[in-house]
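Recap from last week: sequence in, structure out.
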Amino acid sequence: QLQLVESGGGTVQPGGSLTLSCATSGFTFDYYGIGWFRQAPGKEREGVSCISSSSGSRTNYEDSVKGRFTISRDSTKKTVYLQMNNLKLDDTGTYYCARSRPYYSGLGRCDLVREDEYDAWGQGTQVIVSS
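Predicted structure tokens:
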């Protein structure tokens, strides 16, 4: 059964750090790109970062998180991580990981804008940045 399970969310002060995990199962992990998205209260969901299949491991970041967030993947654990440093109030939201569709994964790229390029989603983990 295909699954993506996020964990690692919590409450942190501005300037703090969190590491989110996206544990996967039920598919060939190395073949697929994985994306992280977030949805703040009252706002639309937006792409945060993504990493292509293990063969390429290209990464993309939304402009506001560049230099603060780092995405990585561990093939042995079939898990994708999002290391978030220097967190800001605007980083508050529910964070979701998603699997890129086979076609786009095979292209060795990932996209942060087109959610229709993703075919499976986790249930989300909440991040609250508050002073």
